[in-house]
Specification:
Structural class: mainly alpha
Distance between the termini: 38 Å
Helix content: over 70%
Strand content: under 5%
Number of helices: 6
Largest sheet: none
Mean pLDDT: 78
Shape: elongated
Low-confidence stretches: 133-138
Number of strands: 0
Order of helices and strands: HHHHHH
Length: 179
């Protein structure tokens, strides 16, 4: 990854990873129709590997975008980012379980796929303006917390980590039937 990083746009790689995650989540919806347990498990493993790679790509490149967006507040943004990571990791399994109970196997993947896709679309259109601004204002904490780039980054962090938590909850009951 470190050999590719200088040659590609961080924004483009973040976008690619977000869209890849959305596609994988929506592909999980179709795994419900697989009746062969071995095929189901193989397809799910492949999808999870692609999903994991896309999240790793996002995390790798978002660390190079944050200093561009928040040059004078990098440590604050990283701190807030970690808070959102932890919150999403804690809430993901509960969120997935609720969606699974309400709508079965497919609903968690449809809901999260739609959220990730909407976040990707927002990032696509908003990041052009935000990445070019690189403001040097300091001292206004509320302006910092309401910064569009920070809000968008926080939203994507929450979604990315919820994915990990609720996939386990959603897949386990479905795999249980193949014993």
């Amino acid at each position: 990854m470190s050999k590719i990083a200088p040659k590609v746009s961080a924004k483009r790689m973040c976008l690619l990873s977000i869209y890849m995650t959305a596609i994988v989540l929506l592909a999980f919806v179709g795994t419900d129709s697989l009746r062969n347990g071995n095929v189901f498990i193989i397809i799910c493993i492949i999808l999870r590997v692609i999903e994991g790679m896309s999240k790793a790509i996002y995390k790798f490149f978002i660390y190079s975008i944050i200093p561009l967006l928040f040059a004078d507040k990098v440590s604050w943004v990283y701190t807030i980012q970690e808070v959102f990571y932890a919150g999403a990791d804690l809430s993901g399994p509960s969120f997935g379980a609720i969606l699974y109970e309400w709508g079965g196997y497919q609903l968690p993947f449809i809901v999260l796929g739609a959220l990730v896709l909407s976040g990707a679309l927002c990032f696509t259109f908003i990041s052009n303006n935000t990445l070019q601004q690189n403001s040097q204002n300091s001292g206004n904490f509320m302006a910092f917390l309401t910064d569009l780039g920070l809000i968008l980054d926080s939203f994507m962090i929450i979604i990315a980590n919820i994915i990990i938590g609720f996939n386990s909850v959603s897949l386990e009951p479905h795999v249980r039937q193949f014993k």
